[in-house]
Amino acid sequence: MAKWGEGDPRWIVEQRADATNVNNWHWTERDASNWSSEKLKTLFLAVRAENEEGSCEVTEVSKLDGEASINNRKGKLIFFYEWNIKLAWTGISNTGVKYKGHVEIPNLSDENDIDDIEITVSLAKDEPDTNLLTLMKKEGVKKISSALETYISTLKTEFTQGMILPTVNGEQSEPTPLPVRKPDEHKASEPAAGSGNALKSKSVGVKIPTCKISLKEVFLTSPDELYRVFIMQEMVQAFTHSPAVIEADKGGKFQLLDGSVTGEFTELVPEKQIAMKWRFKSWPEGHFAIINLTFSDKGGETEVCLEGKGIPASEEERTREGWQRYYFESIKQTFGYGARLF
Asked: What are the boundaries of the region Disordered (predicted)?
């Protein structure tokens, strides 16, 4: 973080009435979902493997669910992508017999190394055994893995053009203004100044536009049971389908979704309320939103109201969808608490 008096030409938002995001130095985000979808389809449909037994090729991208984005934070690019993919492949033996099969890639994510990405190849239902399945599992998987590497590499090079603009010492591009909102202004806390050196050690806080969200959901279970789903480590791991660390006490820390979400419980009232400091891994360092969950007994059902504040404005939709998808919908599907939606 730049300090007053150091003359860093990028750190001039505090000196501008319009708070222009000069050189994209502050937090900016670019949605890469549509670009990623087209890129992945192109790469997958080019996959082909062959040997003396015959040939196999990917013929269809039957499922491509997920999202991708790139964030620029003080000249550092942070990549987020998460995809659940299903492909269809066709094999033709050297005698002309056709076979059909499927490929599943459930965990293409920035959280996983390329070698950790699971690629499962199978034959379609009722298809007879064939050596082409072995071909697809070996050479086909290599080609698919190569396609994934190309996608990740291209995302980090080709699609990032213009995310970090030249500085004032070079040829400067037109800066992109921040979206117009009515935000809550959040200012990062300032470190304590050292004795006798206050002016030199005091850092200027970064202001980012923030917003509030509200969600309401009904679950077919009791407040007591639903409360435990949110604070018991085994149950959190069940509905997130990933390792989690939960310290269910006031001041206790939590981490879930492979570290993508972290925070701290600030209030725990059994059957009534859970309050927490909560953040996505990709948010500005040290920035937490305040999430408050209240549980209301509706006679055989439980209504949960979520109030969130201090959420980065650029993350509003992603945060709302994340809670709806990875918490509420996943809890219903995992534990059978399905009910009508509001």
From this structure: 167-199
